[in-house]
Amino acid sequence: MPNNLLEIQDLTKEFRIGGMLSRKKMRAVDGVSFSLPGDRPVILAVVGESGCGKTTLTKMVLRLLTPTSGRIVLDGQNCLSRREIPDSRFRTLVQPIFQNPFDSFSTRRQVIKYLMDTARTYGGAKSREEAVQAVSKALKSVGLSYEVVDGKYSTQFSGGELQRISIARALITSPKIIIADEPVAMIDASLKINIVNLFKQLKDEYGISFIYITHDLSTAYYVSDYIATLYRGNLIEYGPSKDIMEKPAHPYTDLLMSSVPHVGERWARGVRMTDAETREYTMTCCRFSNRCPYATEECRRERPAMTGLGGERKVLCYHPLVKAEE
């Protein structure tokens, strides 16, 4: 059986809440496990509301946050060990695309210089000519050209154009994984489908796997091979996107599915969590039990274990809406 490209094993991240002297802790990510196969490229969509732990999970995989516990294995090596995978090599294997492309480029520096620096530092270009070739190839892959981008600043591009340039920058290192954190959130609805179509194209043409972090279930269903649903730091459902969207097994996922209007819309963002929502992170039982119409005393007493439903599907629930295959 081929090795997995990426394995997230029981990953946990705790933050102290309250004042500096407070001993209270919140598990923003709590025992999350999933993997990306090594024998074929896939797009995994990680979905959930604001505050579910998506960004914290992303930052740990990108080495921007150190996990409290758990493991991240990349290509068979311990990703958390800089001795096994030095930063210079890690940046050729894993590349990020962030939500706001305007934050990725200074208004005082020409955009092309960022791409040229990436080609020289991480793309293996040994001369300016090789760097230009690498940048030109990457820009062509996203429907742009070196000549169009050369000499311009970030303010001279639209949000959609600049996000495509961000994707081109990520391609220069020939990564194995691209992690896209809300990449269409700041883009006009009419252009969102162009970006997610680009992910599908690059997956097929370059063999790159994507972790697509999103609020937008419509695009998640359209672009992804697998969906992982997070709720209050827990991975509550995982499986092929078609199966989950058509027959969700967790009541929370079912609630999300019923709220999907149409392509281009997403859930409201930036809402401050109430005290009740914050307390859900510290619950030792099912964190959705206070809101679940199917909850029983068992749900309110002890957290369920992750249960396999057959094939690649699994759910964190005592009373899944889809029964396990016998």
Structure description:
By secondary structure, the protein is of the alpha/beta class. It has 12 helices and 12 strands. The strands form 2 sheets. An 8-stranded mixed β-sheet has the order 6-7-8-3-9-10-12-11, with helices on both faces. It has a 4-stranded antiparallel β-sheet with strand order 2-1-4-5, covered by helices on one side. Helix 7 (189-206) links the parallel strand 7 and strand 8 (209-214). Helix 3 (111-121) crosses helix 4 and helix 4 packs across helix 6. The protein is globular, with a radius of gyration of 20 Å. The protein starts with 5 loop residues before the first strand and ends in a 10-residue tail after the last strand. Residues 262-276 have low confidence and may be disordered.
Produce the secondary structure layout.
Blueprint: E1 6-16, E2 25-36, E3 43-47, H1 54-61, E4 69-74, E5 77-78, H2 87-93, E6 94-97, H3 111-121, H4 128-141, H5 146-149, H6 159-171, E7 177-181, H7 189-206, E8 209-214, H8 217-223, E9 226-231, E10 234-240, H9 241-246, H10 251-258, H11 275-280, H12 297-301, E11 306-310, E12 313-316
Parallel strand pairs: 3-8, 3-9, 6-7, 7-8
Antiparallel strand pairs: 1-2, 1-4, 4-5, 9-10, 10-12, 11-12
